[in-house]
Structure formats: C-alpha cells, structure tokens
Design a protein that fits this description.
Layout (H helix, E strand, L loop, with lengths): L2 H40 L8 H32 L1 H5 L2
C-alpha cells in the first residue's frame, strides 16, 4: 500500500466522519448557545438546564437525518470494501 492510498483512505474517513457528525454537533452547539443566552438573560444558573433541550434536538435530528447518515456510512463502507483488493496489493 502506497502513501497516496493511505492518505486517500484517511481523507475519505475524515470527510465521512465530518459529514455524518456535523449536523449533530452543529445543532448541539446552537441549542447550547441559545440556552446559555437564555440563562444569562434570566440569571438562572442551573448547570443541567441545557441537557434536556440538547437531548431532544439531537433525537429529532437523528430521526430526521438518520437514514441519510446511514446511507453515507454504507456508501463509504461499500467503497472501502470494493477497493480493499487494490489496497492489499504490494
């Protein structure tokens, strides 16, 4: 396996991880920011207040985007197994 093949595999793996994990992380960040602004405006300093909205939003995102995420990961895995014979050659 050459360096180019290793770099290509790493690039595809990182790209797939960013594409699949990005929406969940972005929604979690936005909900946390909104809850933090709400806490600052109302002076409620409860540390556990942000967990329930984040959990609910992440669950909704997983329900809505779950099939798409599964398709992206399945396509990546299929591509990886298809090219496995090329990677195994010396």
């Amino acid at each position: 396996m050459t360096q180019n093949q290793v770099l290509n595999m790493a690039k595809e793996a990182l790209g797939t991880a960013i594409i699949v994990g990005g929406p969940i992380l972005l929604i979690s960040l936005l909900v946390g920011l909104i809850v933090s602004i709400f806490q600052a405006m109302t002076q409620i300093q409860e540390q556990t207040l942000s967990f329930i909205p984040k959990l609910l939003c992440i669950a909704v995102i997983l329900i809505l985007l779950g099939p798409w995420m599964l398709n992206v990961m399945t396509a990546y895995t299929t591509n990886l197994f298809t090219d496995l014979a090329n990677y195994a050659r010396y």
